[in-house]
Amino acid sequence: MVQPGMTGPAVDNNMTMSIVSIFLFWPLAIPAIINASKVNTLLAQGDVAGAQQASVESKKWSKLALIIGIVAYALCCVGYIALFAIGGALSTV
What we know:
By secondary structure, this protein is an all-alpha fold. It has one domain (about 15-90). The radius of gyration is 21 Å and the shape is rod-shaped. The chain has helices at about 15-20, 25-45, 50-90. The longest helix has about 45 residues, at about 50-90.
């Protein structure tokens, strides 16, 4: 355990990925942002293991939000393309 005020290992808080994921699927981005905001506080308190765990949780929630958001947007695009294709085919009948 690192004493408060001493420099320890750097732990990525994944805040950027968490904020980007809020635009794709916000319900899972919220726990990602909460965990990302804990990382620096835990490091300042000297809890490196807790900071690493919060970083891992933040990354997990961010990735899930990004994957679900990208898949949802892709399905919407495919649905709109199919809708316009069917609508165009029906209007020529």
